[in-house]
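Quick one: structure tokens for this chain, please?
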Amino acid sequence: MELLITPQGAIRCLYEETLPLAELGPLTIQRGSHVEPTSQGEWTADLSPVGGPLLGPFPLRTDALRAEVDWLLSHWLLPTSRLCQESTS
């Protein structure tokens, strides 16, 4: 499990029950995406809650979930350029 701690002390992560996150302080849990079926029986991952794209369609829900996690890890949790922008804003 990867935790990002901002210069302001906020902690950001993809929620898992690997660590007891409540021990780190009060939690604010927000949805990062929506994995939903299409009318054709395929799956998409809508990352608009974190300003991301619509991924897919994928033939399997598992594929959409994997793409969702990969995108969140690469673009939302650990993007160095975004962190630099946030700390200077």
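Residues 61-77 form the longest helix (17 residues).
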